[in-house]
């Protein structure tokens, strides 16, 4: 989503949510990417069903706190500006202060701006990871990607049967 404009992020979230809401309610949905805002923002609160936007409330869930296994939990920020965990003293102190604040505020156990959201009772987040891979201190992105693995019960069937390819003689 737009990194500069909170209004654009709210509008993007609303438009995306309208599409998700038009899908059958039993259809599992995964919505992920760089949201460029924290989950306690207006956009995050809307998507997670904790606030209204134009009379609509989202009902997505965040895979990160819901996953049975989480990897790299110490990476409370997913934006790192190509620096990885090598921040200056000022950034380190800000990070430590926020980490201490998070100890008291269990609603915001992370400051991720990249999320994996999901909808549907049939999706069960098994694991989630903030991926911090790099080669020689060179990172492929200014954000750490967030990875989630879901379990989907066998009882969930495809809406359309897979197409059968005919064999040519």
From TrEMBL:
UniProt xrefs under InterPro entries: Endo/exonu/phosph_ase_sf
Origin superkingdom: Eukaryota
Protein name (database record): Endonuclease/exonuclease/phosphatase domain-containing protein
Originating organism: Papaver nudicaule
